[in-house]
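Page header: ASSEMBLY MODEL / four components / 478 residues total.
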Amino acid sequence: MSTKKNIRIPCTLCPGKEHSLFSDLPREDLDTLSMHKTCIRYKKGQTLFYEGTRPMGLFCINSGKVKVYKISSEGKEQILKLAKPGDFLGYRALISEEFYNSSATVIEEGAMCYIPKSNFLDILQKNPAFFRKMAKRVAHELGLMEQKLVTIAQKSVRERLAATLIMLKETYGMEGDESNLIDIALSREDLANIIGTATETVIRLLSDFKTQKLISLQGKKIKVLDAKGLVREADFYGR
Amino acid sequence: MSTKKNIRIPCTLCPGKEHSLFSDLPREDLDTLSMHKTCIRYKKGQTLFYEGTRPMGLFCINSGKVKVYKISSEGKEQILKLAKPGDFLGYRALISEEFYNSSATVIEEGAMCYIPKSNFLDILQKNPAFFRKMAKRVAHELGLMEQKLVTIAQKSVRERLAATLIMLKETYGMEGDESNLIDIALSREDLANIIGTATETVIRLLSDFKTQKLISLQGKKIKVLDAKGLVREADFYGR
DNA sequence: TCCAAAATATGATATTGATCATTTTTCATA
DNA sequence: TATGAAAAATGATCAATATCATATTTTGGA
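Prediction written out in full:
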């Protein structure tokens, strides 16, 4: 069985707390959350929740990275989003009062906090400003998802890959010298499942981009050498 | 110029009011809305709002049908959803406090009610149950959009067309004998812009389905002859 | 450190669906 | 009801990408 270990991390010490959805929650509410939550270390490959199951709480990523995806009827995985420390998972299903419509699996190990549904709903209930903030977030994500739909429906695989690399660089780029290194452990297959194509196609296109000196490949990690060039490939203008 | 005519339709008389988002709004709030809204007849081709503009209110469709779509950088249209009497448009942008991320154009003429932003937000503010309902709706739509994304990313055009025809039949099917007639005036181009393909491809596939006796074509309108067969084409099982 | 399995890479081929060109039909309206 | 424009239909061709097959490399455990 899994070797999950229960650990305790106060919400007030959570990385990225300042920019998270909880950022301007009153101290009192934060303490309530800290009190009731559980934090567990997950290893790569372990799953936080499965599509089709009933959500019993809210996940908050303390460290590590997670992919959120759906499995189609043919068994193919489609990654809907990637989550990093400070991100929350599972609120869509809690707010819509539905089962999970996607699964979430750890791609880089770390600690995940779990806030029981009742505590989360309590705070939503008694804190209208927080509820508005959550609703605003969900509405914003709907907008993002609509844009993604258009991109997948209308852009070529090459364009989508270039656009995804730029997005990854912006989200997972490192500090200073290494700022062009995309710091997330995505396999070629994961990348293919983000943009909706075959693994071989991603591999071919990456080596193509490498030949064009747009990127360099350092093992699994990708370095962006020519962001402008990638932007050109992505046909980013006018979006 | 357009020949928009201001007409008055009390919300209490709105078709589909019973099942709309406003269904269990207190009488008092409904009257406030009725008081402040304007209702205008729109002809086919007229646009309710444009992507990139600031939302100033909420649209409610009294009669007629509307398509909601985005235009990609290459100028191609992608239809995100179709709206029918009783449906609301524009609340995503109001709740996320963003500009419209899509445009809405009338495909079958009818009357559209317009509720000023301030009135809508007032009611949201003072009526937590209604706000929860709106949030729930947006979260549900996010789930639908995620499913659409997976479908477009992973299913063939043939499967998507078959699935779309089934959805259209379920949403716009008529009563009784004519229950298999899809009662919405969509051009082949519109259909192509829903499923994300070329118009010619839709035309070819439709005549294919016709040859297979899955559908029949009566002018612009499509009749579903063999729903089971279409479901098979759509590979619907297990979704 | 070595081994097996997984991931990556590369090649050959097949298929889907886009694009371009042309014809036919439908439809609005003059 | 005639006519011009838009929509639908059909054909020919081509490009992008999936699929299948087979190395080669990397990696995580025993």
